[in-house]
């Protein structure tokens, strides 16, 4: 029997002398699914490359920032590695497909005298990369660990691989200076009117927004820390890694931040606003500036620690970045394999948009997949499904969901229906609106189809077909 053969069950129904066939299931092999991104399955922990930078690829990518220059994608990231102190300088990687990454080198040889004198740190954290006019602007952080004594600096270059010229401080903070901000985790973006803005901050004082002078690349108002965009109750509730994306189709600005601790509960949250200055709210209208006891339950969680059947999974899934590439949107973030949480990998995921204008991401890393059209018959069968409770940031394990041909679920407690690319699943008291797409199953090393979306109360769900 040919591989492309569709399994059918004959349902003979006489209606006006016409007989009908009813599809029960269909092979997804007939769909335009992605090919294997590498010759063999990629391992998350490869000690042989520890001291071979040319073979690092996605290994040791931490706090990545991305920019597309021509047909090449560049990721700039924190000085990080396993096994020994990292070499300072801001790591650079590049790719032409968002899949195969080449380690290029570093921006600097060492932290500047000014940054070291201020913050006492000898490595760089959480860079941001953009282009203003005809020059590339690289913003970087230097910090004293565990304190507000931090420094955001700027370097510029005429080409994205340098050489880079250090332009000095943009924002500084110090314990006892009377402020609340922590000068780390910058991101610079342009609003719909053409103005430039920088978001920055962390646990200390929350996430702030300040206007940037495109002529200097520095703050317009150096007397103010900026406008508060997001904050949580206290230091026990982590928040950091802000980025803003404007979607001209929805008319919203999307603020993306990370909650939790980077070695385990790190997760990605989203709020949106019609104004770049906020207020940013989640799908239930909860303000991301909430400092009450309920501040653990703000933001739409779109990525969290996860584990699919047959794999150890990942924790520390945070410090994300947006990439708008033509009509496609991507989110990249770091992820620490449960096998060894001190390793850090770069994950790139395709973004899908709900009918209500919220971004959700693929359950699988990007492998070059395009759009795919499916029928009901392609969806019939077993799925590995993960939900991300807003109130539980621990690693979430997959369970099995079986879609039956009659539009019901295997356990009888729910139903499903497909409308174009939108799959709606009712489970118990919850209804999930999801988008269906193609993907490469990195855990089982084969092509598959996926769904991703939100419930009515803003709980994210991932599914991939077995």
TrEMBL record:
Family matches, as CDD domains: GH43_Arb43a-like (cd08998)
GO function terms (MF aspect): hydrolase activity, hydrolyzing O-glycosyl compounds
Domain Extracellular endo-alpha-(1->5)-L-arabinanase C-terminal intervals: 363-463
Active-site residues (renumbered): 63, 240
UniProt KW Secreted keyword: no
Pathway(s) of this molecule: Glycan metabolism; L-arabinan degradation
Transmembrane segments: none
Site-annotated residues for Important for catalytic activity, responsible for pKa modulation of the active site Glu and correct orientation of both the proton donor and substrate: 185
Xref: Pfam families: GH43_C (PF16369), Glyco_hydro_43 (PF04616)
GO annotation (BP), single: carbohydrate metabolic process
Keywords for this protein: Glycosidase, Hydrolase
InterPro entries noted in UniProt: Abn2_C (IPR032291), GH43_arabinanases (IPR050727), Glyco_hydro_43 (IPR006710), Glyco_hydro_beta-prop_sf (IPR023296)
Similarity comment: Belongs to the glycosyl hydrolase 43 family.
Name assigned to this protein: Extracellular endo-alpha-(1->5)-L-arabinanase C-terminal domain-containing protein
Organism: Exiguobacterium chiriqhucha RW-2
Lineage: Bacteria, Bacillati, Bacillota, Bacilli, Bacillales
């Amino acid at each position: 029997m040919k591989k492309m053969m569709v399994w059918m069950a004959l349902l003979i129904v006489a209606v006006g002398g016409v007989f009908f066939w009813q599809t029960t299931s269909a092979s997804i092999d007939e769909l335009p699914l992605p090919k294997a991104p590498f010759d063999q399955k990629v391992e998350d922990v490869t000690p042989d490359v520890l001291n071979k930078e040319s073979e690092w690829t996605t290994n040791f990518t931490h706090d990545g920032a991305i920019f597309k220059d021509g047909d090449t994608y560049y990721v700039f990231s924190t000085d990080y590695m396993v096994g020994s102190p990292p070499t300072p300088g801001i790591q650079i990687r590049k790719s032409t497909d968002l899949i195969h990454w080449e380690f290029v080198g570093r921006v600097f040889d060492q932290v500047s005298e000014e940054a070291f004198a201020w913050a006492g740190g000898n490595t760089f954290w959480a860079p941001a990369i953009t282009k203003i006019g005809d020059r590339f602007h690289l913003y970087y952080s230097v910090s004293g660990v565990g304190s507000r004594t931090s420094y955001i600096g700027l370097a510029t270059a005429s080409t994205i691989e340098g050489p880079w010229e250090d332009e000095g401080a943009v924002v500084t903070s110090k314990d006892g200076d009377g402020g609340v901000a922590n000068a780390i985790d910058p991101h610079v973006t342009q609003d719909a009117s053409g103005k430039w803005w920088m978001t920055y901050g962390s646990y200390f004082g929350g996430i702030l927004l300040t206007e940037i002078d495109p002529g200097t690349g520095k703050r317009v108002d150096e007397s103010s820390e900026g406008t508060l965009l997001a904050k949580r109750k206290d230091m026990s509730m982590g928040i950091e890694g802000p980025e803003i994306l404007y979607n001209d189709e929805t008319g919203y600005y999307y603020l993306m931040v990370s909650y939790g601790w980077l070695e385990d509960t790190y997760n990605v949250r989203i709020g949106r606003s019609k104004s770049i200055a906020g207020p940013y709210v989640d799908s239930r209208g909860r303000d991301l500036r909430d400092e009450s006891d309920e501040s653990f339950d703000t933001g739409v969680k779109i990525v969290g620690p996860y584990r699919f059947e047959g794999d150890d999974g990942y924790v520390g899934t945070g410090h994300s970045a947006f990439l708008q590439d033509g009509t496609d949107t991507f989110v990249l973030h770091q992820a620490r394999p449960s096998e060894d949480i001190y390793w850090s990998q770069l994950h790139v995921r395709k973004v899908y948009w709900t009918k209500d204008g919220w971004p959700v991401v693929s359950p699988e890393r990007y492998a070059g997949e395009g759009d795919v059209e499916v029928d009901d018959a392609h969806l019939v069968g077993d799925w590995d499904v993960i939900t991300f409770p807003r109130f539980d940031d621990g690693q979430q394990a997959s369970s099995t969901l079986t879609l039956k041909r009659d539009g019901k679920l295997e356990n009888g407690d729910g139903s499903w229906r497909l409308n174009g690319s939108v799959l709606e699943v009712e489970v118990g008291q919850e209804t999930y609106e999801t988008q269906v797409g193609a993907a490469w199953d990195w855990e089982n090393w084969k092509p598959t189809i996926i769904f991703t979306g939100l419930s009515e109360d803003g709980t994210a769900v991932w599914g991939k077909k077995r």
